[in-house]
Structures are given as C-alpha cells and as structure tokens.
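Onboarding guide, step 5: your first structure request.
Type a short instruction followed by the sequence, for example:

Predict the 3D structure of this protein.
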Amino acid sequence: MVEHARAQIMAVGVDRFNINEVLRQAGGSKATLVKYFGDRTGLIAAAIGAEARSAMAELGFGTAIPLSMPLAEALQRVLCGVLQFYLQPGALSLYRAVVGSASSDPRGAAGFYHEGHAVVVSSIAQILENRKGRDVRRNIDSLDVADQLVHAIRAGLYERALIGLDSPSTDDAAIKCRISATLALVLPGLAIHG
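The system replies with structure tokens like these:
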C-alpha cells in the first residue's frame, strides 16, 4: 500500500490522492488500511516517510560521505542532493498541498513534518554527529544545526519555485550557488578551526 500511495502522491499530489485507487492497485482493503495506518492521513504520512528515506538513501547518506572528505565538500554534496530532491515537481506539489490543508488537517501536517522534514534533518544531523571532534565542534546541537541548514538552503531558489514565481529548476549551477552561500554563513560557527 505504501508504495502505491507514494507513487500516486508524487504523481498527482495529496489533494488529488485517491485512497480507493491505492487499495485497488495494492489489492488491499479498508480494514487493512485501518489496521496498519489508521486512516488516509496515516497512509499518506507513511508514503511521505518512504519517499524521504528513499531520497536520503539515494544521496548515499552514511556511505558516500567519507569522514576523510573535507567538511565543506561533504556538506556541499549532501545539501545539493537535498535541494535537488526538494525541487522535484512531485515534492513541490506535495509541500504545497500539505501547507494548503494544514489548518483543516493538522494531523496530516504533523505526519508530513515528522515523516518528511524530520527524516531529512535527522539524516544531515547524523553526518554532523559522526564528524564531531574531527572537524565539527562537539558543543553544537546537530539536530538544530541540520534543521537550520535545511531551512537556509530552501531560501530563494526553492521558495520562488514553491510559490510559482519561477519554474522548478534543478540547474546544478544555481543549486551549488545556493548551497555555497549557505555554507559561507554556517561553516565558521560549525567547524573546528586549526
């Protein structure tokens, strides 16, 4: 069910998500949906979580970012991948739908936040944790820094695409520029100097 829900959400968005179509494709029943996910909102949250974990796995978190790589280079690689993920049309559509329905469906918004944003943030935080004492100061709150990084990289390029001012672009040069600007602000307070 999760995979069918995930595919449908990325194709048509949350607002046009059809639970009956997911059940038909998965060969499941409403009783199974209730047993494992509670309701439509629970299944959507599970699908968002699967999408976020898949995107982070594709970025090679934990395997493609060796500790020997300089901190700036490691964060550049990771954050470029994260921003490319956020700029995908399906991800933009999902974010718009969740924000648009947040006041009428706070459980859906909470599910999106915990299964989407929090998965991305915790993946970045783990990279920082693994580097503490090597090239990252020990006294930082990795989750807080990772959260700030994710919000900072979405400024400008992502925000303009999100609200429809610009077409979603995964132009590597523009993404690298956004990440470099963010890292220029953040690295001095994050890195061990010496």
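Each response can be followed by summary notes, for example: The chain has ten helices and no strands.
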